[in-house]
Amino acid sequence: MKLEVKNLHKSFEDREVLHGITFSIESGRALGLLGRNGAGKTTTIRILMDVFQANQGEVLLDGQKFVPSHYQIGYMPEERGLYPKKKVAEQILYLAALRGVPTKQARENLKALLRELNIEEYENRKLDTLSKGNQQKVQLVQTLVCNPDIVILDEPFSGLDPVNSQLLKEAVQKLIAQNKLVIFSSHQMSYVEEFCEDIVILNHGDVVLSGNLKQIKKEFGKNQLILNFSNCSPQETEEIVNHSLTDLTRVKEVKKQFVVLELIAPAQKKDVLARLASLAQEVEIFGDYEPTLTDIFVQKAGDEA
Questions:
Q1: pLDDT tens digits, residue range 43-53?
Q2: How is residue 23 annotated by DSSP?
Q3: CA distances (Å), 177 to each of 85, 182, 202, 267, in order?
Q4: Cβ-Cβ contacts under 8 Å for 285 (sequence gap 6 or more)
Q5: Per-residue pLDDT tens digits for 118-166
Q6: β-pair type (30-35, 181-185)
């Protein structure tokens, strides 16, 4: 399946919050939908789920108008919506019935998911007697109990300890392997980097960056190098660079373990390497710079952007 979001506009009264959002995602891949609070992520998700109607634009699935009611959509919201005083199985089966899942199939799906997430023992416990991490896993069970075609996960790792995070990671990886269409929204960039082949960054209702994450990293790291000298702090390395390499590079950023250098045209990596060989300094770190997703996000959606 290929889901295409084309030129979505959305206004609330006289305020437009989406200004022509366009992106696409295919089955078997996870898309990271990123942005600061208020960027338009939740509004976009609600349009996809037919909670809101767009003022302009369209959503297509395999080239045809997307009708959400014709598909099973598993949505895990950031603000959890289960009933704290109800038993786990009771409410999951109830919600599955509302989504048209036959009772027998819903029970089988429930049992399998509880087992997969290691929470079988809590099947007949009230939700509010569980730890926050286990409540989070129950929330994922309700998301997946309908065996959805499309899965939307909004901050799924919030509040999880490392053990439960690993279980949830495995569940997400399984969804991707099952050729589901997965949209993953999170402020925890390390998880986005781990799961998502493609990203979309929203800022104030506009798409400011989209595409394949590996290619984006390559582009953002173009003509940049990392360097640190042995037995030197990055600050000391910066001083040496400013004394000996100013005709070839400029210091772009001083990080915790190395300095990021930007090549000055027409200088090339080999020119810097030759100059380093002539210095009375042993090189500890040298290579091409690959920015983190956090670096890219701050550049495209931070205050300066």
A1: 999 999 999 99
A2: E
A3: 35, 11, 27, 44
A4: 226, 227, 228, 257, 258
A5: 999 999 999 999 988 899 899 999 999 999 999 999 988 877 888 888 8
A6: parallel
Q: State residue 168's pLDDT score.
A: 85
Least confident residue range of 56-65, 144-153, 201-210, 295-304: 295-304
Give the separation between CA 75 and CA 68, rounded to whole angstroms. 12
Three-state secondary-structure class, residue 208: strand
Encoded tokens for 148: 């959805």
Query: Tokens 């595409």 correspond to what residue?
Result: 211
Chain mean pLDDT for the chain: 93
Q: Which residue has the tokens 């295919």?
A: 26
Set out the domains of the chain in order of their start, with CATH numbers: 2-212 (3.40.50.300), 222-289 (3.30.70)
Q: Answer positive or negative: Cα dihedral of 80, 83, 86, 92.
A: negative
**Exposure of 108 by Cβ count < 10 A (0-12 exposed, 13-18 middle, 19+ buried)?**
middle
| Cis peptide bond upstream of 84, omega within 30 | no
